[in-house]
Amino acid sequence: MLESESYHCPYCGEPAEALLDLSAGDQSYIEDCPVCCRPIEFELRTDGGEWQLDVRAEND
């Protein structure tokens, strides 16, 4: 099950969108900002239905 979620880069503040795979359970991963290319840490918590995404700078 895929979900799309908008977020703002914690470095440059530009809006972007993440594609989330809710079927994989809780996840923590790093992706580069599509605008400024700095590493963003994503933490997804899900039970397969409800979910929460936290986005922060890599060293926060």
Automatic annotation (TrEMBL):
InterPro entries: UCP037225 (IPR017143), zinc_ribbon_bacterial (IPR025990). This is Cysteine-rich CPXCG. It comes from Ectopseudomonas guguanensis.
